[in-house]
Design goal:
Length: about 375
Amino acid sequence: MSEIDSNKNTFKKKLLEKQKEAKIVRKIVLTVFIIVIIASSGLIGGGYLYIKSSLEPVDPTNQTEVAVTIPIGSSVSLIANILEENEIIKDARVFKYYIKFKNESGFQAGNYKLNRSMTFQEIIETIKQGKLTSEVAFQITIPEGRQLKEIASIVSKKTSFSDEVILDKLTDKAFINSMKAKYPDLLTDDIFGKDVRYALEGYLYPATYPYYKEDPTIEEVIEPMIKKMDEVVATYIPRLQEKKISVHRFVTLASLIEEEATEQTDRAKISSVFYNRIEQNMPLQTDPTVLYALNEHKDRVLYEDLEVDSPYNTYQNKGLPPGPIANAGDVSFEAVLSPEETDFLYFLATKEGEVIFTKTLEEHNKEKNKHIINN
């Protein structure tokens, strides 16, 4: 073998060795990269859930007043630490970053009465305005599952305004547009959909609202309910975007779950039934939409009622109704995003409040005969 051939073979050998080494290195780099991605995903997922939890009220149902003192000259860090020590917020760091992100300032020293059901924005507005240092003039409690007309009636009993005047304001295009401009992430163009009965139906959050003036304007009474809804829905928006669900669809489906649910009901199962029926191109056939279409309250929906000609009648129309049929609470909102995995296509509420889930029409009719028709 000549010297040239020998050099060629040596070169080829070294080239093959380098290629082999490069292949091994690529495998190692790829393996490390995958491990880093998996670890990062876990951290990101865990971090997202932690931050989401920290942004929410400590206890949405606890309205017991807690005396909190903000000293003169307090920095944002000190205020955040005081709030965390008094268990008004979950995490001082998250609260500080929220304030920075929102560019909030102008906090006032003083003695405040706060509670653990307050959102970050409510706490911030309170400390900026000092409004809880004064006595509450009156409160209005809006329960879950209430329609716009019912809310108007509740408000009228606590204020000097009639049901009609309040409902006129709630359906006034100029007022709605002013709220839409102020809360664009919540009140989208969908609220003015072709067949939507009331643009603000379902958009007044169920909660207890304190008022510090004896005779506030209608706008001052109503806006906190929309504002609260905006704050609540904002916590769900990342998940809505991930699942490609619009806010209007989210609020609408939550309202159906809220109206169908009883205290004993697992709303996640009701949600699964709705999703399963939509997936199989079946009408939702939910009675509360029929009652909404009829524009009346009845203890029992009759067969003749199912024929009502309305886009809200989910016996006659497939898919969701044009808009919400009532307001909904967090449990129903969560059910929309976290339905249970089931094969159920039917459910039936008994007089005792129990909800029976079934997979076939035959099973459903059997339960219906047992609990409804024969009782």
